[in-house]
Every structure is written in C-alpha cells, then in structure tokens.
Design a protein that fits this description.
MATE family efflux transporter, 82% helix, mainly alpha, single chain, transmembrane helix, membrane
Length: 461
C-alpha cells in the first residue's frame, strides 16, 4: 500500500499526469485529424472556438487552481478536514460559474464568433460548434475542478483513468458521426460537437463518484451545503492571481488567433495543427510541472522548506531534457507528421517553418512552467500574475501584431513573439525562486535561515 510520503514523490505524481495529458493530446489529435476530414475550414473553426473556451475556463479555474494548491498544503500540514471543506466549496462554486457560461455560449454563439473576425463563410460552422460544445461548459467546469481536487490529494491515477475512458468514447462517437458508421447519422462538425458533449458527461459522472471518496471522511449529499468563509478567502488569495495569469495567457492567445484570422484561413488552420503537434513536446514538461506543484505545496504545508526548494531543480532539469529531446524528434519527422493532417502544400510549408521555431520555444516554456509552478505551490502567485500581465500583453501580443501584421512577417513573426515572451518570463521566475523570498515568509528566523542557497536534489524526489 502506498504510504503518505511515497504518494507525494515526483515520479508517483508525474507518470499518471503524463499519461492523462497524453490521452488528452490524443483526444485533441484525433479530433483535429477527424475534423480535417470534414474540411480545413472546420479545423480553423474548432481551433478558434477552443481558444474561446479556454479563455472562459479561467473564470472557474481561478477557484479550482487555488483550491488545489491549498488542499495539498493542508494535507501536508495534516489538516485533512480543512482540505475536504476546500474541495467541496471549489467544486460547488465552479459548477455555478460553469452553468452561467453554458447559458451565455449556447445563446450567444454567433455574436461571439463575429467578435474574432472570422470570415463570413465560417460563421455558420462556428455558430453550430460553439452553441453545442459551449452549451456544455458546466461539464467542463465540473471536470476541471473535480480532476484538480482529486489530483492534489495525491491521487493522480483517478483522472488518468477517466481520461482514458473519455478518449475511447469520444473517438468512437466521432468516427460514427463524421463518417456515418455504426448506424450513426453523418453529421460532420455537428457530430463532433455532440461527441464531445457525450464523452464529457460520462467523464463528469465518473469523477463525481471518485470525488466522494477522495478524503478520509466520505463526502455525503448534505455536505454540499458547507461554506467556510475563512477557508474560501484563502482559496481566493491564492487563486485570483492564478486566474488573472491564466486569463492573460488565453486572452493574448485569442488576440493572436484574431491576428491569424486577419492573415487568412490557411494561417489559422496551420496554427491549429501546430497547437496539436507542439503539445507532444510540451506535455512531458507540463506533467512534471503539475507534479512539482503538488509535491512542493505538500512539502511547504508540512514545513519542509529545504526539500521544497531543492525539489524544483530536479524536476526542471528533467523537464528541459525531455522537452528538448521531443522537439528534436518532432523536427526529424515533421513532414510526415504534418502530412497526416492535411495535403495542402502551403499549410505544410508554413507548418515546417513553425516546427523549426518550436525547437527554440520549448526550453523557454519548460523553464517558465517548472519554476512558475514552484512559485505557485508556495502561494507566491501575485508575482507570476504581475510578470504575466506585462510580458504576455506587451511581448506576446504586442510584438505579435508588430512583427506578424505591421511588418508582414506573418505566422513567423507571431512565433518570434511567443519565444521572446516565454524566455523573459522564465528568467524572471527563476530569479524570484532563487531569492526564496516567499519560502521564508512567515517562518521562524531559525528555519528561514536554514534554507539552502543553491540548486540541488531532494531525497523525496
């Protein structure tokens, strides 16, 4: 049986997260591949719609992310009842926000699509996809909050198993609706939207079942009335800067997608394909970053400051190696890989250039994700928020417009802006973490002075 100490080791936390993210990547890849059989226009619509959905998820992920970090800290401090209360509140609040978003997206799909400068011929497709998938945003909210809560109790296998089941169901329904197989009607993009909704509904049910037994004391129906103002205040204190940070990212991504829409449908489709391909490089690093955040929050909550500080560097070096290696592999097989998705020679040429730029992008992204997650784990979320607002808007979005649109560099200009943004934020978070300002905050002076002053490894990692 896994002990409490072993449950929060980096490897035990990371490998199920990695498999879960791989399955999510598979879901996105299969989605993109199958939708490409409908048309490249459909791919462009799905890509832009998903950016919109990601922007709106920050509204409930503000609560879920803050709650996840606080749950790991409380469990590390042996305050299991507080962790349980935080979890219940996070799921409940996220569900309410998700329901409100569902109503807005279902009834306001066409106006929202028009905001992002889509070509007129793409609007009917966007209207259909946004109204159906966006109408189920409450399911996305529940899935995100439930997975975050369960994962931060140290159970990273549960969300992984759920992702596996969701993938199988989604692929099955996708194939049936797109190609009219297994007695399904041939519905094209509408079928893809319905498939997404059905798979998320089943996954939500499974996660809810798992959630009720996530803590030592089982969660009962009457527990949903629980609301602890002080604990919720702690959640928001950690969570609202995370929400602003996530909002900055997704809204600057939306701005860049708007620039791409101005460049044309081919550039928009290319970037959508590249999102799928780049995820194969960054998911290893992202899995390690999430595991680092859970582990460091647990160590920090238990007062094990030296271990919390050192463990970040081990995860970072591993992540840098994996992200760089996978980027090189992608570069070597790039032409064949892109050919799976599209036969358009212009899109393939654009995509090959982007894959070369990806080799520069991924190490900066890993540095930013890994050390940024360490800062979040100890509650230093405002610093990440401040640098994100500045860098993402002035460098990522501002430089994208300057290079991509004003100077006519196109998609390559947007990639240059993204690379500059990732490295700038990465260097800034590393400087902050090495200063250990927040690690020492609120600790006795004798313990604060014992924190080591350089990178190293941890026995628990």
């Amino acid at each position: 049986m896994t002990t409490e100490k072993n449950k929060f080791t980096l490897w035990v936390l990371a490998w199920p997260i990695f498999i879960e993210l791989t399955l999510q990547l598979l879901l996105g890849t299969v989605d993109t591949l199958m939708v490409s059989r409908v048309s490249d226009d459909a791919v462009a619509v799905v890509g832009l719609s998903n950016q919109l959905f990601q922007a709106l998820t920050t509204l409930f992920m503000t609560v879920a992310s803050g709650a996840g970090i606080l749950i790991a800290q409380k469990l590390g401090a042996r305050k299991a009842e507080d962790a349980r209360t935080v979890a219940i509140m996070a799921v409940k609040v996220s569900a309410v926000i998700g329901m409100l978003l569902s109503i807005v997206l279902h009834f306001g799909a066409r106006p929202l699509a028009q905001v992002f400068q889509l070509e007129e011929r793409l609007l009917p497709l966007a209207d259909t996809y946004i109204s159906i998938v966006g109408g189920g945003m409450v399911l996305t909210a529940l899935m995100a909050s439930l997975s975050t809560v369960i994962r931060n109790t140290g159970n990273t296998k549960g969300p992984m198993i759920t992702a596996l089941g969701m993938n199988v169901i989604h692929v099955f329904f996708n194939y049936g609706f797109i190609f009219g197989s297994y007695g399904f009607p041939k519905l094209g993009l509408t079928g893809v939207a319905i498939s997404t909704l059905v798979s998320r509904l089943l996954a939500t049910g499974f996660l809810l079942f798992m959630f009720t037994s996530a803590f030592d004391r089982k969660i009962q129906f009457m527990d949903w009335r629980i609301f602890h103002r002080k604990l919720f205040g702690e959640v928001l204190k950690i969570g609202w800067p995370l929400g602003v940070n996530m909002s900055s990212y997704v809204f600057t991504q939306l701005a860049m997608y708007t620039f791409l829409a101005m460049l044309g449908a081919k550039e928009l489709a290319t970037r959508t394909y590249m999102n799928t391909l780049e995820s194969s490089c960054s998911m290893l690093g992202f899995a390690l970053s999430l595991a680092m955040q859970i582990q460091i929050a647990h160590l920090y909550g238990g007062g094990r400051i030296r271990e919390a500080y050192k463990s970040s560097y081990r995860g970072l070096w591993i992540g840098l190696g994996l992200a760089t290696g996978s980027s090189v592999i992608l570069l070597l097989v790039s032409k064949q890989y892109l050919g799976i998705f599209t036969a358009d020679p212009e899109i393939i040429t654009l995509g090959l250039s982007c894959i070369a730029m990806n080799l520069l992008l991924q190490p900066g992204k890993m540095l930013n994700m890994g050390i940024g997650s360490a800062l979040n784990a100890v509650g230093d979320t405002r610093y990440n928020m401040y640098i994100s607002i500045g860098s993402m808007w002035m460098v990522a979005a501002g430089l994208s417009y300057l290079l991509g649109i004003h100077l006519s560099w196109g998609l390559m200009g947007i990639y240059v802006a993204m690379i500059c943004d990732e490295y700038l934020r990465g260097v800034l978070v590393l400087y902050r973490w090495r200063g250990q300002k927040f690690l020492r905050k609120g600790l006795p002076s004798s313990e604060a002075s014992s924190v080591s002053q350089g990178p190293g490894t941890t026995a628990q990692a």
